[in-house]
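[09:14] KT: can someone run the structure on this one? pasting the chain below
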Amino acid sequence: MRKIVFIFLMTGFVIACGSKKSTVAKTTSIKKATDKNYKQTLKDQYTFVINEIATDTTYGYSPKNAVEVGGVKDGEGPINERRYLNALTGPNGEVVSYYRAGSCCAVKSNNSPYGEFALLDNYRVTWEGSKDTVSIYINMYDSSPLKAPKGFGLRK
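[09:31] RB: done, structure tokens below
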């Protein structure tokens, strides 16, 4: 029963993400899932250590290249998302503010408790003096080395 409810919700989220293709076509274009269980390092209780800014302009900005913070297996998925965002600054060191805009975009994950798919979370991020709010896509099911999206800075 739980799996049926999840599949129903996933279908709704895929449609809500603006896909004009069928769910079947959407899932065939998703990259192959792997076990991604990288151990993140904490700077403090609320912030991850991140030492690099991505050179790939899609990192974090595209559901196909989401930031992988992990933690869901330990009950820390949502806080890991915030730990990641707390490590970012604006391009000139400005403090960022953010809010979770919702979930979207099914991705394959061997770490999902709901089967082979997981949903990404979309955060809207801004800082003082920015002209726009940007979307960052975060995967709390899988974990890989973290980078700041291009255009952001890092807390020292």
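[09:33] KT: thanks! The chain has one domain: 2-154.
[09:34] RB: yep, looked fine to me
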